[in-house]
User: What shape does this take?
Amino acid sequence: MARGKAVLLPAMLKFGAGGLALLSLLDASSIPVPMDLVLAGFVWANRGSFWLYVLAASAGSALGGLVPYALGRAGGELFLLRRMDRDRVERIRRRFEKQEFFAVMVPSMLPPPTPWKLFVFAAGVFEMRAVPFVLAVFAGRVVRWTTLSLLVLRFGPGAVGLVGEAIHRHGLLLAAVLAVLVVALGLWAWRRRKDSGAL
Assistant: This one.
């Protein structure tokens, strides 16, 4: 696999945004690719087109995520139960029942070592509809990679390391901020739905 990636990465890079989308699709579906580093290289080499790279990588990731999603949809609850205890599976299920969109979007915003494929697989297990799933992954990736691109434009490619170090040192703080953000978005969506129902 390492040899394959050594050949694959340079080949895909020659195709610009299209190659980046394909790499992101492979990363999300099957073959791990250091997408943050690859995207940072693209952005630094062609700074004026960073938005195109963000959209291409996000679209590739959203489409590639349909592979583990489909595996979960095909009957993956037994697989989850083999990998974790029933209480944790039920907690994930409740998260999807309350706010399935944010249950996928928030992990899609976070860099490794977030177990992103676990949440994508769980989205299939708990029968999240495909279109909201793709939109949630796409939205989360756009947030993640727009933030990374802006940091690269400001600090250079070394921003990837800065982000990783910040998460390592301040992981709990970042998780708390994201939790507050998710709650705020959930309350906003609930209030909007309630107001529209009252009309």
In short: The chain has one domain: 2-157. The chain has ten helices and no strands. The radius of gyration is 18 Å.
